[in-house]
Amino acid sequence: MLRPQDGPTRERRRLDGIWDFRLDPDGVGRRDGWSSGRLPDAHAMPVPASYNDVVPDLAVRDHVGDAWYSTTVRVPRGWDGQRIVLRFDAATHRATVWVDGTEVARHEGGYTPFEADVTALVTPGEEARISVVVNNELTWQSIPVGVVEDTPHGRRQRYFHDFFNYAGLHRSVWLHATPRTHVDDVTLVPGLDGTTGSLAWDVSVAGPDGAGAGGSGVGGSGVDVRVRLTDADGTEVAAGTGASGTLTVPDVHPWAPGDGYLYELAVDVVDGDGDLFDRYSLPVGIRTVRVDGTRFLINDEPFYFTGFGKHEDAPVRGKGHDDVMLVHDFELLDWVGANSFRTSHYPYADEVYDYADRRGIVVIDETAAVGLNTGIASGIFGGEAVPTFSPDTVDERTQAVHAQAIRELVARDKNHPSVVLWSIANEPESDTDAAREYFEPLFALTRELDPTRPVGFVNVMLAPHGTCRVSELGDVVMLNRYYGWYVQTGDLAAAEEAWRAELQGWAGEGKPIIITEYGADTMPGVHSTTPVPWTEEYQVDYLDMNHRVFDSVEAVVGEHVWNFADFQTAPGIFRVDGNKKGAFTRDRKPKAAAHALRRRWHRTR
Ligand code: GCB
Q1: Which of these, 20, 436, 495, 523, could form a disulfide with 488 (CB 3.0-4.6 Å)?
Q2: Shortest CA distance to 356 belongs to which of 344, 338, 370?
Q3: CA quadruple 581, 587, 591, 593: dihedral positive or negative?
Q4: Which residues contact 240 (CB under 8 A, 6 or more apart)?
Q5: Where in the chain is the domain with CATH 3.20.20.80?
Q6: Which among 145, 159, 160, 162 is the best mutation to test ligand 1's pocket, defined by most ligand atoms within 8 Å of the CB?
Q7: Ranges for the Glycoside hydrolase family 2 catalytic domain (predicted)?
Q8: Distances 440 to 165, 266, 446 between C-alpha atoms, Å
Q9: Quick one: 182-287 is in which CATH superfamily?
């Protein structure tokens, strides 16, 4: 599923703005016909945004169930004869969509796009009504997982992850037009050999003249594919024909961390006379990624990750994508000396990866599989003690949903040079046979979908070295550790000793180790002369201690502080208006830790 774009054969219209909105706590909307016509008693709701914090009402913030959105769009007159597609960049966590009362799409998973061909339902020049119901319920069979409880005071959503369950239309909605015979998908694999680059392409074509194509249909049905690669100045550097092949790029300018050099590939579908059916253009970074022993190599150079686990989280808009926050956050990454981040704990908006490509920022791309661990829920969040994997909890249906989340993530992000590593889960239970059985096929699936990138998962402190049954399936070891915070709280000397001992154990595995989380909650403005937890001084000392440990273990190839910025969580007795482990506050003001990281990371760059 390719993203909408404007070009010689394609046009798109962004449907963002103020939509009609209404909660449906009793689930009556379908019965009462809210899927066609105007939504009765609607409020205004901006798209994109989470709905939760826009309205100052607990019933909205803590709503569990369906929420309806509706808007109208006038289909551009010029789209006659085109294929017209309605696309949602995300709808959290699942959605059903109608156009003028006809159901056109259903999608499960809150962080990846879906679309519907609505050509037969709309008329160019006329208005169409789009109605959407989004549902935010997390169950044992959703990714992430959760439990909805019926209480005397209403339904309550419980979940096992540490960020607020924001929901709604978080990203852009598009109506776009393509030719009926069109480029359906493009897969690119870059390569490097000295100063020569290569780019393998594989294009599928769909539509009446593409014979339903797929690469193999091309050529035989009077349709051909031409590809043309231009450099950043627009000069052609290579060209080829056919549904698949490999371009050679002499004197290549590789994409590299800190140097987001992008070529552009134009993919043309042409008829027998060379006339254009469709053109799809996409930015291309030529780089390689590989693990070699304990080294993580980008363009065959050892790479050391500096940066953060992030969240899509901001006041009022929740997880709604916002270009202002995007550009500002990347400026702050640059300021602090970060070269990378992890999309903890779900796939981020497409715009984030585009911008990372352009800025030369390296991305660890994560699925929304977080909270598959009832040990954390009961140990830290005070939940019930039930097994993680069982016929009543995480089961093969969950695994199928998880597999689909991986498929959609790889399909969406496979061509981004910034993405160098897949993370298929955060902190699942990983020290049991059941965990091993659950994860083995998911690792195999990820490798089958993308043999070009390493894959891993993020290990939790409850499965320390020597007990984890899943880590050996990964190409890298990713560790979240809170020595000096959740354990040895306030005792950095004891924390340092314990942490070093565990890390040395992991180093013996012979794989690169990325510390994907280490952090200490810190209230900005709280100070002390001695390092006391929650003060800005303690956060700095805590990070220094961690860095001493990392610097003493050669297999450590990266440090991602938890978190880039403070973020909202479910209410709880150890969260003060959310998680406060940010190096920046929620409104992006630096704590003392941000300055300390800046000194370290600009030195190591
Ligand atoms: C973790 C989780 C992250 C939490 C963090 C914390 O291990 O991966 O989602 O926010 O710890 O601060 O407790």
Answers
A1: 495
A2: 338
A3: positive
A4: 201, 226, 227, 246, 247
A5: 301-372+402-428+452-604
A6: 162
A7: 289-603
A8: 28, 38, 10
A9: Immunoglobulins (2.60.40.10)
Cα of 426 from ligand 1 centre, angstroms: 9
pLDDT band at 209 (very low <50, low <70, confident <90, very high): confident
d(CA 391, CA 41) in angstroms, rounded, equals 42
Decide: 71 and 17 in contact? Cβ < 8 Å.
yes
Residue range 433-468, pLDDT digits in tens: 999 999 999 999 999 999 999 999 999 999 999 999
Side chain identity at residue 337, one-letter code: G
List Cα–Cα distances, 472 to 436, 443, 506, in angstroms: 10, 11, 11
* Rounded-to-integer distance, Cα 483 and Cα 502, Å: 10
Q: How wide is the angle at C-alpha 166 spanned by C-alphas 586 and 363, nearest 5°?
A: 65
Indicate if ligand 1 lies below 6 Å from the C-beta of 313: no
How far is it, in rounded angstroms, from Cα 424 to Cα 404?
Answer: 11
Q: In what order do the strands lie in the sheet with 182-193?
A: 182-193, 196-206, 244-249
Nearest protein CA to atom 1 of ligand 1, as residue? 480
Report the residue among 480, 522, 539 best suited for mutation to probe ligand 1: largest number of ligand atoms under 8 A from its CB: 480
- The pTM assigned to this predicted structure is 0.97
Compute and round to an integer the Cα radius of gyration of the chain.
24
Q: Are 375 and 462 in contact (CB under 8 A)?
A: yes
Tell me how far apart the 2 most distant CA atoms of the chain are, in Å: 78
The reported pLDDT for the residue numbered 213 is 45
Q: How confident is the model at residue 216 (pLDDT cuts 50, 70, 90)?
A: very low
SS3 category, 391? coil
Catalytic residue among 427, 429, 536, 559: 427
Please tell me the CATH superfamily of domain 301-372+402-428+452-604, with its number: Glycosidases (3.20.20.80)
ipTM: 0.99
For atom 7 of ligand 1, the residue with the nearest CA is 480
CB under 8 Å to 97, separation ≥6 — which residues? 86, 88, 103, 104, 105, 106, 116, 130, 131, 132
Cα distance between residue 479 and residue 492, in whole Å: 19
Instruction: Write out the residue limits of the CATH 2.60.120.260 domain(s) in the chain.
Output: 11-178
List, for residues 151-194, the tens digit of each pLDDT value.
Answer: 999 999 999 999 999 999 999 999 999 999 999 999 999 999 99
Sequence ranges of the chain with CATH classification 2.60.40.10: 182-287
CATH homologous superfamily of 11-178 equals Galactose-binding domain-like (2.60.120.260)
Q: CA-CA distance, 272 to 221, in Å (whole number)?
A: 9
**Spatial CA neighbour of 284 closest among 340, 357, 378:** 357
Dist. CA 387–CA 422, nearest whole Å: 27
Are the beta carbons of 257 and 558 closer than 8 angstroms? Answer: no
Q: Which two tokens stand for residue 278?
A: 């469709």
